Amino acid sequence: QSALTQPASVSGSPGQSITISCTGTSSDVGAYNYVSWYQQHPGEVPKLMIYDVNKRPSGISSRFSGSKSGNTASLTISGLQAEDEADYYCSSYTISSTWVFGGGTKVSVL
Amino acid sequence: QVQLQESGPGLVKPSQTLSLTCTVSGGSIGSGSHHWSWIRQPAGKGLEWIGRIYTSGTTNYNPSLKSRVTLSIDTSKNQFSLKLTSVTAADTAVYYCARDCVDSVFRFDPWGQGTLVTVSS
Question: Is the pLDDT of residue B101 over 90?
Answer without folding.
Answer: no
